[in-house]
Each structure stands twice: as C-alpha cells, then as structure tokens.
Records
---
Amino acid sequence: MRTKQSARRVLGAGLATLALTAGAAACSTNTATSSSGASSSGTYTVWDPYPQFDNSSAWVQLLDKCGSAAGVSIKRTAFDTTDLTSKELLAAQQGVSPDVLIVDNPVVSTLASAGVLTTTSQTHVDTSAVEPNLLAAGQISGSTYGIPIGANTLALYYNKNLLSAAGVNPSSITNWATLNAALAKVKATGKKGITFSAIGTEEGSFQFEPWFWGAGANLTDLSSAQAVAALNLWTTWVKDGYAPNSVLNDTQTTSWEEFAAGSTAFSENGTWQLANAAKAGFPYGIINIPAENGGSAPAPTGGEFVTVPVQSNTARYATSEKLVTCLTSAANAVSTDTTLSYVGATTAVQTQQASATPALQPWISAVQAAKGRTSDNLGVKYPKISQQLWTAVQSALSGSSSPQSALSTAQSAAQSAIG
Amino acid sequence: MKDTAPTLSGLVRDEAGTATAVPAPGRVQRRARTAADSARSRNRRSAQFAAWAFLAPLTVYLLAFYAYPLYRNLDLSLRNYTVFSFVHGGAPFTGLANYTAVIHDPAFATALINTLLFTLVSLLFQFVIGMALAVFFAQHFPLSPTLRALFLVPWLLPLIVSASTWSWMLDSESGVVNYGLHFVGIGPVDWLTSPSWSLASVIIANIWIGIPFNLVLLYSGIQAIPTSLNEAAALDGAGSWTKFRKITFPLLRPVSAITLMLGMVYTLKVFDIIWIMTKGGPVNSSTTFATWSYRLGFGNLLPEFGPGAAVGNLLVIMALIAGLIYIRVQRRQAA
C-alpha cells in the first residue's frame, strides 16, 4: 500500500511538473517572441542562407563589425536556403521577422507580394550604384525591395585536356552549331560531352534558362518556336549521348562532381564552383554560354538580396538601414563576394575584383549580360511559369513526350496557373 | 503535487468515517450517516477534481499537438490562402474549392495510382519476405542471431543515408546495379530517370527498408507460438509447409494484422526516400500524395498552402480508412 501510494505521489508530482514546464515553456516562448521583435532595441536579428559559415568565418565577423558600427549587437541565424522562404513567412505571420533578411533573389518577389518586405524608399537604402539588370530581380511595379549582396550566374567550364585530345579549340565555340560540333568530337574520343542539371526543381529551370533565352524565347510564351529549339537542343544531347541520362536527377553539385571526375568535357555551372575547379586536378577554362546564333546567351542571375522585413516598430528601420548599407558597401562587398565566390553587384566592386583576380573577367561579363528570373515584371508569376518549364524539360528529356508537346502542355498549364 | 494531496488524505478520512459510523445507534448513527454522506460527496467531488487534474496534462498535450494542428490543416485546406493572406490573415473561406482543384489536377490520377501501387506492392513484398525470413530464423542455427542483427541494419540507418546510397547504386551511368547488369549481358536501365522505372526503383528501396520491421514483428510473433503445437503436428506427420500453413500462419494472424496495419500507415506517408531519390519525377512518374503535398506547400518558390493541405488531408483520410479496416478485421477475429 505504501509503495503504491508513494508511486502515485511520484506520478502526480511528475505530471504536475510536466504541466508546470509546459506552462513555463509557453511563457518563455512568449517572452522570446517579444524580445526578438520590438522590445530589446540593442539586439538586431539577421537571417541568412549561408549555413556553411560558422562564427569564426569572415562573414559572421563582418556582421558583428557592422553591428558594432551601428551601435547594436547582432543575433545571426543561418538557414538552408530552401527553408528560408517558409521560415520567413511563418515568422511574419507571428510578427517576429528578423530585422535584416538575406534571401535568394527569386524569392524577393514572393515575400514582397506577401507584404513581408519594406521598400528601399521606406528604409532609405541607397541602391543607385547597383547594376540595373541585377536590381531588377528585386523590383516589382516600380518598387525596390532590397539590394543584391553580389551575384552569380552560369557559364560553361571546360576540361582543357579533353578538348585538346579531341582537337577542339574552345574559342571556336560561338554558337550552338559550333558547340554541337565540339560535343560530337569529344564523344568520338569516348568521353562524355557535357553535364548540366535538369532536375525537377527550380535548379532545373535555372540551368535551362540560358539556352531558353539564348534561343530568343520569352518566359511569357513557353511554347514558342525558339523555346522548342532550346529544349530540342537538350533533348538531342541526352538522346545522342553527349550528355548523361543522369542529368534528369542531377543537382548542380552532383553534375559538377561528374565533371570533376575528369571524363566530361563541359559543365554548365556557376561562379560558386571556382574554388572547386582549382582543386579538380586538371586544367580548366571558362566560356560564356553561347546563344543559338552567336554571342553570349543571357544567363539568369543568382545570388541573394539583403532585405529589411516589415516591423511593427518602424523606428528600427534606421539601424537596419545602417546594417544593410554596411554589408553592401563596396569595401565590405568585395570581401563578402570573394568568400562567397560571387561577382559584385556594383561596377566599383566588379572593377576591384577584376584587377585582383583577372580570371574572374568572363564571369563579370556573364553577370553583366545576365537577366533576373523575376524581371520583366514577372514577379510572383515566375514560380508558376518556372514549375511548368522544369516539368516540360523533365518530360522531354525522359522521353515521355516530344519537346513540342511538352512545352505546349507547359504553356497551357502556366496560363491557367497564372489565371 | 498539491492537487493530489487532498485526495489521499480524503481517502483516509473516508475510511475513518465509516468505521465510526458502524457501531453507533439511533440519532447518533443518523447524524453520523449524514456526516459520512456529505464527507463522501465532498470526497467524490475532490476525487473527480483529482481525476481531471490527472487528465489535464494529457488533454492539453493532445489538444496542443494533435487536435490543433489537424484543425489548422483543415482550415488551411478550406481557405484560399495566398502568401499575403497567410501572413496577414483574412483568407476567404472557399469550402471544398482546394479539394476540387486538387482532384481535377492532371497530377491527381497519377499520384493516387502511384500512392496505391507504392503502398500495396511495398507491403506485399515486405510482408512476404519478412515472413519468410522470420520463419527461417525461427529455426535455431549457428550465426542465426548475428545474421538476424545484420538484417536490422536497413532499419537503423538514417533514411537520408539509405536513400542516397540507393540513388547512387541506381545511377544510370555509374551505378553499381547497371554495372552488374552489364556483366549479365543486360543493357543499362535508367532506373531513376525513366518514367517507366522510377516508381519501381523507389518501391525496391522502400521494400529493402521495410523488411526488418516485418521481420522483427513476425519473428517475435513466432516465438510466442508454443513449440508443443509444432511438435505434435510433426508427430502426426506434418511436413514443414503444412506446419506453416496450418499452425504458424493461422496463429500469427493477429500479429500479421498489426504488422500490415502499421506498415500501411508507415508506407502511405513515405516521403524521404522518394524525395531524395527522384523528387517524385521525372515529371510525376513517382509522385505520391506525400511528395505532392510537400511539393505544393514547400517545393516551389511560391508556396500553395491550400492545395498542399488538401492533399495532406486526403492522405490522412486514406490512413484513417486503413485504420478502420484494421479495427473491423480485429473485431471479426475477436468474435
């Protein structure tokens, strides 16, 4: 009896403690909520998509430096870039948005349409130095919702050994016909021609767009003859064995790994692979992605925007503006863009980078020719179009339908999705 | 702690009260009885209070972590949420519009068929192979425990590890499976990138992962079958197949039912393996309700919360139907 009673007492105590802790937890969430919001003015929160940087990294040190210059302390949280959109939407719903949010550029229009972001005119962030083609990704109906921290884009890396073995002169590749001829020569030597990523996510659309735009197609008409020509190009590559079938499942990272293994001549990839290219163990070069009839194709811009989410206490914007300006100032941007392996968003930064690393020159010209995915006032229509675009790419490359019919389906689906 | 104290002392008082009430005659007795009555009702009330106090943490927990999320998901699926109304509220109530949109989506039929195929084929193979292995391991032989432990490996591995490994092995160009097939003289199969194979590939991976679960449950079920039954059957001249058919299988029926039921619920909601291996593609060829719901809600730059929640709810309903079938089967067995 006694043991039973004491057992019961222990159980009761346990349950009571549980209830108490639950209550306490509920209370503590509330206090945490208000502190990260408006009440504690000395701490400013920053969210970024750079989980690869820890507290000892140059990036976090720069954040702290900018914080102390503005007289506040910084509480930084890093998220995986794919998580950041939903995290921010939830935070905004709960009224606990960070003071400064660094977010992938095609997401800016989504967050802006959710009413989550302030415009640069509200926060007095100066965007005049930024290249207009880069800023366009953050502009919707005449308002600007952030400032790019830097930019990246796509170009073709090539393996010098394989090209010289196949007798291909990279400078001869100026349009699709010469690129196809080069791929055929590489294939004749028993090597793979090219890797890219045609995966069924935004990454697949990002990689397809240089060819899509290079053919002269426009995102508002996915089934145009130019669009079909671009998809035909990719489909033929896979069908003729110039590109491995695994591109359908490859991310940009896995397609890079195939190139780095040394038996593929070309890889469509981004600035961020430069450090890895140096480690690849074979000499490499870079050419811009050719347009169908010669010249450089416009590649989509990648890279993040520094934004200021809406706060209930608008007095915080003044300090947030100082932080944003500090992070994107020429001197700081050079070092940030170097660590991220990005190209600067302003002419000043680009000139400094070009003189420090001449190898960046092809990237700088690629960024200058690049085009924002959400530009042309597509804004939140872009995600819906992009989803249909990558679906069409997947369906043509896997052989489930012809490029023409895949794109026609995509166009009608995109039309009805946009409404 | 404070809540329980009065109950315990109350019980003691109650015992004392009835004890004094028994020998006392007349008015004293009546008075004692009314006193005892009021004490009893007071005690009953405090006992009830204590019961509720004990129940409260669990109720609060269930409400906060089960009922509320389900309610929110239902609410999401019945309103037309845009990113703006998700943040600022005021999404208009649209009834079943999200469900109609989802059902009329060209991906719906594919996703439904894939979900059913994925679940049923996975279950069938997992159960049959798991049963065969369980029977095999029930006969004690050297190394049996070691081998049995090895069979648990798929279960112990984090899903991201096993799914990534499977997707390497099934790679069209450099995968070990195609390499092996090449030796047997079979040309390369585009396991993950061909619309006709992608679903089969994720099913194969899922079967491999699910076998240990079936093995463990069925093996423990077999252990519970008295050996005397098998011995008696053997004396009567039953072979091993007859023993399995007439003794093991019928006696395992309750364990089999719960194994299949749990397997069904686990398989219906499988997401990681498919997402890591094929992202539900190419196009929708390996999309199930679980991956479709995720794609709608999170897999796009512009989240579509309403349709995503609607697909999620359809999945919940499917699991619920499976649960009801199980309860029905169990009742019939009990009767």
---
Amino acid sequence: MKDKKNKIINSFAISAVIAIVFITFAVIFGELYKPFKNWLADIFNHHWIGKGIISIAIFYIFGFLCYFKISDHEEILIYMLKIVFWSALAGVFAILSFYLYEYFLVIH
Amino acid sequence: MTQTLSILLSVHIIIGIIGTIASYATLLWLFKRKIPIRLLKISSITAFAAYIIAWITGGYYYVVYYGSNVKPIIKDGPNPWAHSIIMETKEHIFLFLPLLAFVILLVVWLKGDNLQENRSLRNALALVILITLMISVSMALGGIVISGSAR
C-alpha cells in the first residue's frame, strides 16, 4: 500500500528545493540582467512581489505535480529533508555572497 | 509615516519574533525524551502562520514606504551597506521561510507519531528547523541593523 503521507511530504520537499533554487537564481540573475528584474517589476508592480508570487506558485504547483511521480519511501523522505536543509543553506550563502561581491568588488 | 504603516511595521516585528520563538520551541520539543506531539503541532503551525503574516505586513511596508522613504536615507548615510548588503539579503532570504515552515508543518502533522522511534527522521527534520531558525534570527538581527541605520 502506498504511503500517501510520505508522498505528500516528499513532493513538497522537492518543490521547496525547486522554489529555493528559483529565488536564488532570480535574485542573482535579476541583478546581473536588469531587463529580467524590470520585467518582474512591470508584471507584478515590484520585482520582490514577482519573486515571491512566482516562488509560491512554483512551490504549490510542483508540490501537486510531483505527488504523482515521487516515491513514498521513508528513506527518500529523510534524504529529501536533508536536501531541503542543504539547498536553503546554499541559497543563503549564494545570495549573501552575491551582495557582498556587489558592494565591495563591483564598481558602480 | 502613516499610522497604518507604523501599525503594520509593529505587527511585522512582533509576529516575526513570535515566529522565531515558535521555530525555537519546535526544535526544543523535538528533542524531548517524550516528544510532545500536540505542542509540536501547535508550534509548527504558529511558526508557519507567523511567517506568512510577517511576509504580508512587512512586504506592504517595504513596497509602499521603505523603497521611497527609508532606503534613500540609508544609502546617503554613513552605513549604505545596511541597505546594499543587509536589506537586499534579508528581503530575499525571507522568501525561504514560508516554504521551510510549510515543509516542517507537513512532517510534524503527518509523521508526528513516527518521530519518537525514528531517530533519522527526527534528525533530518531538526536540520530543516535549524536552518529555519537561523534564517529567522538573522532576519530579526538584520531588522535591528537596518532600523538603526535609518535614524
């Protein structure tokens, strides 16, 4: 019998990783390629609102879609939670490092 | 600043602290000899709700007021890094919090009964709560630096 609880957690864990990767990418790419940041601002009134809305959409859409494909094994669940931790940590360091780089090393 | 905005900013700060306390309580209760599942469920849902409310209230203040009124003061002041590094990082890393809190909520509510005997699951969940707590605490500290730089 399939464990629906494991499948639900696994699918939202993987969608959290995808959303975190998107946020990190959108922050760095948006600063390096201004038309992308401006596009977000044009569509959503503010680039930050755009990043927030898209990340939530990614989180819930992928969370729903992954449910039909993802494994229901508990070992995968434990593994996925560790990936969520490492991706969040990597995202924090990537964004912080990028703004440190922008402030100290990029001449404006 | 209008009274509505100052109320929203106050709510953002208070509810953000409540979220941090709730995340801390979730981590603390997870390592009790006998895990209090009911309390764990309450703290995890409190943290999630708090981060959502802090997002909406802080976000409204940030979009409507901060960018046009506070940001120029900080950028022209003695500590422009408070915006360029701290605020820029804070506003984006904050977006991780509702996602992480929701994953924690799902694990606690759906697998709460397995946490007592499954040590690997408990440790993996603790890692996710730990990074959530670290981000939440850094948000609060960042807020103190930013408001101090705007004075």
